From TrEMBL:
Membrane-topology descriptor: Multi-pass membrane protein
EC number: 2.7.13.3
A Pfam family the protein falls into: HATPase_c
Organism: Leuconostoc mesenteroides subsp. mesenteroides (strain ATCC 8293 / DSM 20343 / BCRC 11652 / CCM 1803 / JCM 6124 / NCDO 523 / NBRC 100496 / NCIMB 8023 / NCTC 12954 / NRRL B-1118 / 37Y)
Substrates-to-products reaction catalysed: ATP + protein L-histidine = ADP + protein N-phospho-L-histidine
SMART domains, A to Z: HATPase_c
PANTHER family: HISTIDINE KINASE, PHOSPHATE REGULON SENSOR PROTEIN PHOR
Gene Ontology CC: plasma membrane
SUPFAM superfamilies per the UniProt record, alphabetical: ATPase domain of HSP90 chaperone/DNA topoisomerase II/histidine kinase
Histidine kinase domain ranges (all copies): 129-329
Name listed for the protein in its UniProt record: histidine kinase
Length: 331
């Protein structure tokens, strides 16, 4: 007990040493003044005892306030997790500012942790959905292998689907750190579109879909890898939801790309929500392979690159996707 009291007294003195140092300096100045003036020592001691009484009263008040704050902080230190930082009324103005800074840092860390948890949950949900989706082409390949009916054309199609699912998973992960994986350059839009069309040529042939692209070309300052992913998602959606007919791709001189199909279209009540994460709408309910992430990622990527996208559609008539490359703000 004595050791504890002695330890508290030392801590208190280390916090308020300047008060007692000032008192001792005042006492020494008073002694020097008395000696220099040849005054009575009794007068000096009378003043000294009065100062000691005042110092004792101040010490008691300060120690009471200090001990309350010290006890509260000790209790906080003993807790395994500090969820909220309680306010201590005995702090000085500077100490209150430090406390506010600590609270601000604590809130920032809580927001960061919440964001990390949300990202982890998104990735976990996507992994589960991705595992379900990729089973379909793998099952097709496995069935062809078991029955001995392996066809080069069908195998190429299923491998293309698997590759697209893998690419979407990688892009979804990269999207979380978009600004760390970006390289702006002056690129040809026409060249990127034709490359995607070439990769999907087997799908066009398999579904007997006509595809056309005009000759006009324009350049845009963007990231070629991210932009190619956008074109892949939009064109593959057009192929997937167009049972018959054609897909027209038009590059305009106002820096817009229009991708128009004659597919099943999108219901009007689904259009406002097609860019929401995980939203599949009516078309997604009739197509079990829909993830609800493709258009969400397309919209987010284009916004980050400073571009824009709008979609117009009519059921059983077709869908028109307009990608606007008139640079706005790069995020």
């Amino acid at each position: 007990m004595i050791k504890k009291i002695f330890g508290l007294a030392l801590q208190f003195l280390s916090d308020f040493w300047y008060l007692y140092a000032s008192f001792m300096l005042t006492f020494l100045l008073l002694m020097w003044s008395v000696i220099m003036r040849s005054l009575s020592l009794d007068s000096m001691f009378d003043v000294l005892w009065g100062g000691c009484y005042i110092l004792i009263v101040i010490t008691c008040i300060l120690f009471w306030k200090w001990y309350r704050a010290h006890k509260g902080l000790i209790q906080l230190l003993c807790e395994e997790e500090v969820h909220t930082l309680s306010s201590i009324a005995t702090l000085s103005s500077h100490e209150r500012m430090y406390q506010q800074l600590i609270k601000k840092q604590q809130l920032h860390q809580e927001k960061m942790q919440a964001q990390l948890n949300e990202d982890a949950n998104d990735i976990q949900d996507y992994y589960a959905m991705w595992a379900h989706q990729i089973k379909v082409p793998l099952s097709v390949l496995d069935l062809m292998n078991q029955t001995g009916t392996i066809e080069k054309y069908e195998t190429s199609n299923q491998l293309l689907v698997i590759n697209q699912y893998l690419d979407m998973m990688l892009q979804f992960i990269r999207l979380k750190n978009f600004n760390q994986d970006i390289a702006y350059q002056d690129m040809s839009v026409q060249k990127s579109l034709r490359s995607v069309i070439k990769d999907y040529k087997y799908w066009f042939i398999h579904k007997d879909l006509a595809v056309s692209i005009n000759e006009f070309d324009f350049s845009v300052v963007s990231d070629a890898k991210w932009l190619r992913f956008v074109f892949e998602q939009v064109i593959f959606n057009a192929i997937k939801y167009t049972p018959q007919g054609k897909i027209n791709i038009i590059c305009q001189n106002d820096n817009q790309v229009i991708i128009k199909d004659t597919g099943i279209g999108i219901a009007q009540n689904d259009l406002p929500m097609i860019f929401n994460q995980g939203y599949t709408g009516f078309n997604g309910r009739i197509n079990s392979n829909a993830s609800g992430l493709g258009l969400y990622m397309v919209k987010r990527i284009l916004n980050n690159l400073g571009h824009d996208i709008t979609i117009q559609s009519e059921v059983n008539v077709g869908t028109t996707v307009i990608i606007n490359f008139q640079q706005t703000v790069i995020k």
